[in-house]
Amino acid sequence: YKVWWFNSMFFRSIRLFMCLRSGVSLSSGFSGSPTSRAASSSGFNGGLRVAPLEVQMPALSPTMEEGNIVKWLKKEGDEVAAGDALCEIETDKAVVVMESNEDGILAKILVQEGSRGVRLGTLIALMVSEGEDWTRVEIPALEAVTLTTAPPTAADPAPPLTTTPSAPKQSVSANRCCLLRLSPAARHILDTHGLDPHLAKATGPRGLITKEDALKLLNQSGERLSAPPAAAVAPPAPFSVSPPIAPSTGRPTFPALSVPGKPGMPGTFTEIPASNVRRVIAQRLTQSKSTIPHAYASVDCDLGPIMKLRKQLATEDIKVSVNDFIIKAAAVSLREMPEVNVMWSGDGLQALDYIHISIAVATPRGLITPIIKDAANKGLQEIAATAKALAQKARDGKLLPEEYQGGSFSISNLGMFGISEFSAVINPPQACILAVGGTRAELRLAPQNPDGPVLCTQQLMTVTLSSDGRLVDDELASRFLEKFRTNLEQPQRVSVP
């Protein structure tokens, strides 16, 4: 016993000495916790974890609530300088590159590429300072991020399979009862003769038991009764067919056919997840139509003078489109009528001291409105170059937040798609949006001349102004459209630098 006690005290003294040298407390040195084992297993001074620099999901637009991680541009272990691109994030407007705010090393990516619906402030990555070992970064406890496609957990186990012989029969019977569909004629035949509808073989569309199926079952039952002589059989008990029971989900057993003449498989569909841009478009359109009293006014504009001016400019190698003239005319009209260049705020009318024209551009991800800033002071050539560059960036998803935020007036042109006229939805918090249709040739009476009235062909275009009735009433909208038509039909009022 003395020898055992001596050996025990000797080894305990050695362990105490080693713990003191490695900087581990006595209690943690003798405990078996995972933290102490991780610290002591990596050496005397190398087991300490490195404090991380947290990288969170930023707000890349004022209306952004969540984002999608499209692509990581840095890998774990890469050096990162302030201003370097870390990843591409799909916001509610476009795909924006997220830049680093600090120098360091990307140590851990917590939210992988393709993750959708990442809320603002969520921890998406960890960095360490320069010169520190990024492999020893301390990962916070709140590491898990809720993604749209999460694997099944133990909290939702699969239902156990029963081995009772009668259970499958009951489930099959219940399912057949729920899926039973009869035509009126078939129901009458089966009820009259007391036949079990479950014995009928359905040949109708989507599992419908038709009249022919019921007659076939009746003939088969008659053959079975007349074939062998048997004892008197008690009359069959009356059978009442209950209507099909709707599933617990509340949806019909078989969905309606979406393609006439081409019935699809029952219950099959393809669910396409909505992008952030599409969800925000849906929210803003719903907000606009439900909270803004829309008023509409239309007017026809003669594009003959513009067509002549475009031909003259083309000889001087100046290429501008009709839409560029429309943008310029709208901006000049807003400058001449500042009471239309307003916006609705929580306290009421808010007059704007800038004229930024938002142009609607269709992209694969949805409609987006890049902004031509200070359009009233820009020439046609500058407007044309800016509009072309912004439209291309919008289709590529490369717009910066300042390039699509802060517009004061919107223009939506569907003339190139063959639309003669339409009404657009106001883009809140703006007060107006101008819907532009296509051009058409019409015969009209020319102004009076010494020879009398003369018929001439005019190139007309219909524009419709959707205005917020709280800010722009019908009389003000009419005067604005008249001013816009005057500026458009007199292109000499528009300067070409």
Could you tell me the CATH topology label of the domain at 293-494. Chloramphenicol Acetyltransferase
Which residues sit in consecutive blocks of at least 5 with pLDDT less than 50? Answer: 22-46, 143-178, 229-233, 239-244, 246-251
Indicate the overall shape: flat
Mean pLDDT: 77
Structural class: alpha+beta
> What gyration radius follows from the Cα positions, in whole Å?
37 Å
DSSP summary, beta strand count: 20
Helix content: 25-40%
From the 3D coordinates, which CATH architecture of the domain at 293-494 would you assign? 2-Layer Sandwich
Strand content: 15-25%
Largest sheet: 6 strands, mixed
Number of helices: 11
- Spatial arrangement of strands, main beta sheet: 11-20-19-18-14-17
CATH class of the domain at 293-494: Alpha Beta
The CA-CA distance between the termini, in Å, is: 107 Å
Oligomer: single chain
Specify the CATH homologous superfamily of the domain at 293-494.
Chloramphenicol acetyltransferase-like domain
Question: What descriptive keywords fit this protein?
Answer:
Chloramphenicol Acetyltransferase; four-stranded antiparallel sheet; alpha+beta; 11 helices; 497 residues; OB fold (Dihydrolipoamide Acetyltransferase, E2P); 20 strands
Protein architecture, described:
The structure is a single chain. Mean pLDDT is 77; it is low at 22-46, 143-178, 229-233, 239-244 and 246-251. It is built from eleven helices and 20 strands. The strands form six sheets. Strands 11-20-19-18-14-17 form a six-stranded mixed sheet, covered by helices on one side. Strands 1-8-6-3 form a four-stranded antiparallel sheet, with no helix packed on it. With 497 residues, it is an alpha+beta fold. Among the domains are: 53-128, RNA polymerase II/Efflux pump adaptor protein, barrel-sandwich hybrid domain (OB fold (Dihydrolipoamide Acetyltransferase, E2P), Beta Barrel), CATH 2.40.50; 293-494, Chloramphenicol Acetyltransferase (2-Layer Sandwich), CATH 3.30.559. It has helices at residues 2-22, 26-30, 34-41, 166-178, 184-193, 211-226, 276-291, 304-315, 322-336, 380-396, 474-489; strands at residues 53-56, 66-72, 79-80, 85-90, 95-99, 104-109, 118-119, 123-128, 181-182, 208-209, 294-302, 342-345, 348-351, 357-359, 361-363, 366-368, 371-372, 409-413, 432-445, 455-468. Helix 5 runs parallel beside helix 6 (211-226), helix 9 (322-336) packs across helix 10 and helix 9 crosses helix 11 (474-489). 30% of the residues lie in helices and 21% in strands.
